[in-house]
Design a protein that fits this description.
The protein is an alpha/beta fold. Helices cover about 30% and strands about 25% of the residues.
Length: about 260
């Protein structure tokens, strides 16, 4: 239950994990219980059961700067504020957006007590669901060009592929961005072998979870939506077939050139 408004405000940026309530950390649970006001994208706030006296302030996923500013203002007014994010708040999420507003905002923002409460990210949950495809060096790349140019994304895709990183792709496709994932696969096919494993993890840990394993040659962009996390393996990634069970996919820790 919320503790009520205190004289000194506080802002916590809280990771809710990938979806399953059991994967919410105990630290995050306690912080959420202490909050007076909770801010976030509507579907994330919908995961929570508010206690008496708590208020939720939902907003669209395209107004992150405005959401961060409103939460900071509430904390300046003395409220105990929780800003929620799916997964981990520091991975393509609200922690960075809040920091941007603190840096650009009034002096009062810089005097606030702010903390970031980590959560299990979608890429780690997706990797765990099928084994250990991120078992060696890997990187995470957002395919959304809303906040950075596509030319930069394409450059990073090529360099990561050439360096031999496994890759986790966030924000792979949407109604407003229907072409990026197909183009990303095209870039990878110029750099990597056809048999590189590709894992499509949709709605990971939620009731409608779906995992589809393919090769780079066969992978289709239409298999993904904005609820999908994609993992690209490496030339060393292995698939262990198991009769009557899902395969185990892993990238060995030891690589011999």
């Amino acid at each position: 239950m919320a503790t009520g408004r205190l004289s000194t405000g506080h802002l916590s940026i809280v990771g809710l994990g990938p979806g399953d309530a059991s994967l919410l950390t105990e630290q995050a649970r306690q912080v959420l219980q202490r909050a007076d006001r909770l801010y976030g994208y509507q579907p994330y706030l919908d995961r929570l059961q508010l206690a008496e006296g708590q208020q939720a302030f939902p907003s669209d996923n395209r107004v992150e700067a405005e959401r961060a500013c409103e939460a900071l203002k509430a904390a300046c007014e003395g409220y105990q504020v929780a800003m929620v994010s799916g997964g981990d708040p520091g991975v393509f999420a609200m922690a960075s957006a809040v920091c941007e507003q603190i840096e650009a905002g009034p002096a009062a923002f810089k005097q606030l007590d702010v903390d970031v409460v980590p959560g299990i990210s979608a890429m780690l949950a997706a990797a765990a669901a099928c084994g250990a495809p991120l078992g060696n060096d890997f990187c995470a790349i957002s395919l959304s060009n809303n906040l950075k140019p596509w030319t930069l994304i394409e450059h990073r895709l090529r360099m990561a592929a050439r360096a031999g990183f496994a890759m986790a792709y966030y924000n792979p496709i949407s109604k407003a961005r229907p072409w990026q994932l197909g183009q990303a696969f095209g870039v990878l096919r110029e750099e990597l072998a056809d048999d590189i494993p590709v894992i499509f993890s949709r709605a990971i840990t939620r009731p409608d979870q779906e995992i589809r394993v393919s090769t780079l040659a066969e992978a289709q962009a239409e298999w993904a939506d904005m609820s999908t996390l994609i993992i690209i393996g490496t030339e060393h990634t292995r698939i262990i077939a198991r009769e009557g069970r899902s395969p185990l996919i892993y990238t060995p820790r030891y690589i011999h050139q």
